[in-house]
## 1
Amino acid sequence: MPKGKIIVIGNEKGGTGKSTLAMHLIVWFLCCKKNVASVDLDGRQGTLTHYIQNRSDYANLHHITLGLPEHLSVTVRENPTEEQKRDDETAFMEQLEQLRNENDFIIVDTPGADSYLFRLAHMAADILITPLNDSLIDLDVLAKVEPETLTIKSPGHYAQTVWQARQKRASLKKPQMKWFVLRNRVMHVSTRNEKLIWKLLEALGKRINFTALSGLGERIVFRELFLKGLTLLDLGKSKSGVSMSMTHLAARQELRTILQAIGEDVCDRV
Ligand SMILES: Nc1ncnc2c1ncn2[C@@H]1O[C@H](COP(=O)(O)OP(=O)(O)OP(=O)(O)O)[C@@H](O)[C@H]1O
Ligand SMILES: [Mg+2]
């Protein structure tokens, strides 16, 4: 009986590539014949839910089989009473536990803003992955940077949210979560800004205990796949009807490197 691993994709910043990465991890594990559940904690925006629905529609339209996860969409209340919060938290933990009993991996996509269920999801994470655009604005949620010396002054508010989630896990005697901060939309030419972000991330990672990873490059293909519900991993397979280029291969290799870095088995089916 599986006791699935919970992988949360989180950042208190919008548009950093959370849903795109969540969908790629889901399809990666499905390709490796794992049982996968997905949770869209951003039920109001519903990007991951729509991505999965588009995948199902595309498969039906083209009479092909595309792997799909067991999906749960959750909408967080805007102004809950204390009682509603408690009820929602209990219900969410029960749903997560049930998904864990039935699946090898549970991929949780979160909105780019704090809420009571956002915090709970972080507390439940065995692995937390935080995608981040290569910009000082995006870094701000993780750390305050001293403008003159370009060194870290203090952790930012999202870093504090993660710290609290870790404290809560420790008080419940759960094993520590592994935290990875993943640079997304990395430009192909190395710039001064990019080198600075990398240096700051490495220093910050040592201080607040995360591993900085070089993630996905800036590639138009990520924007094009959503409507068909496809991922890089579906391309080139005759059933998907979309061919594979060298750029796609390079992007797939980046994904493989991420999975290796987070310590997951990279099966050779992908
Ligand atoms: N590596 C990449 N290269 C190019 N475009 C990308 C890349 N990653 C994500 N994008 C694009 O950036 C936009 C935002 O991505 P996505 O919706 O995954 O971010 P998000 O963090 O989930 O946003 P939100 O906070 O609104 O939920 C999308 O148009 C997506 O296609
Ligand atoms: Mg999203």
## 2
Amino acid sequence: MKFFIFDSLSRTKKEFVPIDSNKVRIYACGPTVYDYAHIGNARMAVVTDLLVKTLKKKFKNVTFVSNITDIDDKIIDASKKSGVPISKLTSKFHEIYNKEMNALNVSPPDFQPKASDHINEMIEMIEELVNKDCAYFSNNHIIFRVESYKYYGQLSGRSLDEQLAGSRIEIADYKKNPRDFILWKPSESNEPGWDSPWGRGRPGWHIECSAMSKKCLNIPFDIHCGGVDLTFPHHENEIAQSCSAIKVDCEPQNFCRYWFHNGFVTSDGEKMSKSLGNIKLVNEILKKYSGEVIRLSLLSAHYRQPLNWTEAILQQSEKTLSRIFKNLEKIKKDEIEDSQIKKNEFFLEFQESLFDDLNTPKSLSILNVLINKLKESNKKQQSKIYTAIIEAMKLLGIGKNKEIIIENFDLIKKLIDERDRARQKKDFDRADEIRLELSKINVEIEDTKEGTKWKKLK
Ligand SMILES: [Zn+2]
């Protein structure tokens, strides 16, 4: 089964062919940690998590890196305002971010590098850019010379005028051209800073992703993810830096092969902003809805489409989930046979919809059809459909917190296997312990000639 991804650089949906099929490599721009995550941050994390989980169905080895921005002027400002030291502030919100994403069933990335741990790599890359005359020193800053890179603007498709209008141009007399951007800037004595060939200072934001993706994944890697709002200037700048550091006018494909961008989240039809007071924070929504309801809501629209966040979406997802659970609970699970998932046509149809550029609206409608079929089908088919539904929900990352439905299904099988091994080794104490553990989650087991059978007690 082929895997398709929409690549923002070529603006086409393409078959995904990794550089090395034994090692798929993905990078996503992570959060700046000085405040609670909003639902826009969560959409990126959930959608990328689904991409990684789905890719793992096809490729054995997938490495996913997502960074933590812990150096930024917004962090410095927040620290000054609150009086909380920077490292305390960033480690607090880093931890909160990971906890909240965990509540949304987002698996942690394989690596979560922090910008502050990669200053040397950034300095090295900046030196490379200066040596190649792609960057210049001016008024204690190092500035990237945008004119030096001929592919600049290719990702965002912005013309020169649009680049000027779209980026928040700081009026700075040390820039030779207003489009140029900062790689390194001087730090005041009360600001965080590191020694560099250009004096004590700190990096601009964009360079960290170029340095950390190269360090953690090597370039070129396969997929670069992020919110569509990062396309310009952040991702445009990442390409310019990473490619120019290889050689002058090096093509964008030498940084990464596919650009995967998720759409905006609006709040009741309006752009989320502090001034409108309509920013939806994950921790606030979690007080009223489960992480799975939030996750399902985030997946209800196709990831490339804008998503209008409303109370109605949450209510609808809550209804959908409880309907799924009710229908699954009606099935006598002790009569379910484990059917081979690779030959399960119901699951394969579901999987194909996700392999097609993560078409979650289609995959959710397939899941809905399966739920309806479950009641009407004969026993043999029921087993197959039930297994397909469980696997589909695991892939979507929903149903984990519901008693028995998914997590316990796996847990029960794991415990029974372990008990069988203990009995073979005549470790009857451990076997009894496991029987007790199972009874605590209302599972009764029976040892038969054909092996261990289990039943869920009401
Ligand atoms: Zn980035």
